[in-house]
Amino acid sequence: MLLAAVGGLASCASSEDNAERSEGSIDGGPDTQDAEAGIDAATPRDAGWSDAAPPPVVCATPPCATALVTTRGARPDDLDEGFCALLDDGTVACWGSNQVGQLGRGEEAERAGSSTPERVVGVSNVVELDHTCAVDKSGGVWCWGTGPFLRGDGGARTIERTPVKLDLPASTKVGLGYDVACAVVEGGLRCWGSNADGQLGPLGSAEDGQSKLMKLPDGAPVRSLGVGRATFVLREDGELLTWGANPPIGRMSSIFPDPYPAAVEIAGVSSIDLVYDDACATAGGYGFCWGAPTHWKHKSAIGRALPEALASSEPFVQISTTRTHTFDWDDVQGTRWCAVAASGALYCWGLNTNGQAGDGTQEFAIRPSLVKGLPTEVAAVRTTRDTTCALLTSGKVYCWGGNYYGQLGNGQIRGRSLVPVEVVLP
Q1: 55: closest CA among 375, 314, 317, 319?
Q2: pLDDT at site 30
Q3: Which DSSP helix (H) or strand (E) runs through 130?
Q4: Measured between alpha carbons, how far is residue 170 from residues 89, 138, 188, 340 in Å?
Q5: Domains of the chain: which residue ranges?
Q6: How far apart are CA 290 and CA 275, in angstroms?
Q7: Which SS3 state, helix, strand or coil, does residue 147 take?
Q8: Using an 8 Å Cβ cutoff, are 193 and 206 in contact?
Q9: DSSP tag of 34
Q10: What 3-state DSSP class applies to 387?
Q11: pLDDT given at position 291
């Protein structure tokens, strides 16, 4: 049955004002026997495991979303949670925290956050979206919020409350990390920002802040990018190239960091997710995760450097992960995951103090839980530490869990929800 190594425990106190952000704790590791007991899985559709694919979004009535992403806080350990949706009219709507301009609403916008999704100002005809960067149909790259946006000293993170167009050649894809970003351009991949972990290639080969054209090994066109402490390039033929911090490059290497692109030994990769040093992928209907150490199973970075397969009762087509925050081995903020099955069912497990696992409780989800209360199949899922949002095949978006910045998108600030609620898209 559906099973994964749960990535960490949670234990930290918070103020009364931030009660939704407080975390419970449990002793010891996961009960494997209990985890293997299984859950009521939705009936898989006829497609075989090898050709598993997400159910498509079919827009029937507006407003309709076609893609869903999380926003970025100022630092990897920030809890400034929020989400953005690409709408079928080519605009982008965002909600949640606006501490560093993640909502793209301009200088006068409320900085505490917004529970009402609104369109990002000045951005249209968008065809690709990653966090708070978008590619329009003419190849222009627009970014807002915080990141290395090629402003002045291009390697420095700046705060842009109104979207800015980056000085780049025409691009087809964009990937945004905290200190590094990349875009797919003619002739390869152009990356910029900090090269502290070799994400821009061999150390010393690129100055921080300088946009660098990286020549990738010959191969198929790029399907998607992932940027964190490593850089991931997923090709249309399922080859996954990685370089940068080791881990989370997900392959054998004696170089720390490893700045040279090379393939992960997983054939036919169909989706990736990378959050700082936690990574997941799907291939042939199977799920794999790796990266940060865990509290009870891998207490060193090397212990979880290679992909670990997740067992499941039906094909996985997409997995969303979160970052594990390690303070010491008695205090680890837990990772959590959600996985979309080929049937359109959604499973979540891990940290659940705000009901973000979608099982109707606030108890740590030691085993995967089937999320209930969604009106149609799920096409994609995105997770932050305290909140989960799902893009449905109808183009509607539903969220559940924490809401201290309005990240549920239902017009209400505060008040967690243990069940999915519809986001009020503009």
Answers
A1: 317
A2: 34
A3: strand 126-130
A4: 21, 7, 12, 32
A5: 19-422
A6: 11
A7: strand
A8: no
A9: H
A10: strand
A11: 87
pLDDT (tens digit per residue) in 41-53: 333 334 456 667 8
What are 184's two structure tokens?
């797919």
**357 contact partners, CB below 8 Å, separation of at least 6:** 336, 348, 349, 350, 351, 365, 369, 371, 388
Q: Which residue has the tokens 């200190």?
A: 179
Residues 375, 378: Cα–Cα separation, whole Å: 9
3-class secondary-structure state, position 33:
helix
State how far the alpha carbon of 356 is from the alpha carbons of 40, 41, 162, 210, in Å. Answer: 19, 19, 30, 39
Hunting for tokens 């978008």 — which residue is that?
A: 134
DSSP 279-335: EEEEETTEEEEE-S--SSS--SGGGG-S-EEEB-SS-EEEEEE---EEEETTEEEPP
pLDDT digits (tens, 9 = 90+) for 51-97: 678 899 999 899 999 999 999 877 776 678 999 999 999 999 999 99
| Beta strand residue intervals within 180-277, DSSP E | 180-185, 188-193, 212-214, 222-227, 230-235, 240-244, 258-263, 269-275
| CA–CA separation, 264 and 232 (whole Å) | 10
Q: Which of 65-79, 173-187, 200-214, 385-399 has the lowest mean pLDDT?
A: 200-214
Q: How many CB atoms lie within 10 A of CB 301?
A: 17
Question: Rounded to an integer, what distance in angstroms lies between the CA atom of residue 22 and that of residue 17?
Answer: 10
β-sheet with 92-96: strand ranges across: 65-70, 82-87, 92-96, 114-119
d(CA 202, CA 58): 43
For domain 19-422, is the CATH number 2.130.10.30?
Answer: yes
- What does the block give as tokens for 217? 């090994």
- The tokens for 359 are 């099982």
**Distance between CA atoms of residues 237 and 244, nearest Å:** 22
Query: Is it the case that residue 39 has pLDDT exceeding 90?
Result: no
In whole angstroms, what separates CA 235 from the centre of its chain? 18
| Phi, psi for 279 (deg, rounded to 5) | -140, 150
Q: Which neighbouring-strand residues pair with 82?
A: 96
Q: For residues 283 and 270, is the Cβ–Cβ distance under 8 A? A: yes
d(CA 345, CA 333): 27
Q: Are 400 and 356 in contact (CB under 8 A)?
A: yes
How far apart CA 302 and CA 362 sit, in angstroms, is: 32
Give the tokens for residue 426.
């503009």
Provide CB contacts within 8 A for 363, sequence distance 6+: 24, 352
**Spatial distance between the Cα atoms of 271 and 279, rounded to a whole number of angstroms:** 11
